[in-house]
Amino acid sequence: MPQKVRELMAELERAGFVNRGGKGSHRNFVHPDVQKPVTISGKPGDDAKKYQARAVHLVLEEMKR
Predict the structure, then answer these.
(1) Distance of CA 7 to CAs 2, 24, 37, 55, Å?
(2) Which 3 state secondary structure label does DSSP give 60?
């Protein structure tokens, strides 16, 4: 079962990312230790796309190093 957009946003927030807003249904999450922002689109109740989940998990793994 795919993750929900709200679950991805919660993972980023637990890791210290801050939602800087965006246009429409897009949200940009930034962190002082990560150069590029992570953009998540969609309503919180929508199923997350595979590329969105992959991007979140990659940036969280990168932060662990």
Answers:
(1) 10, 19, 18, 13
(2) helix
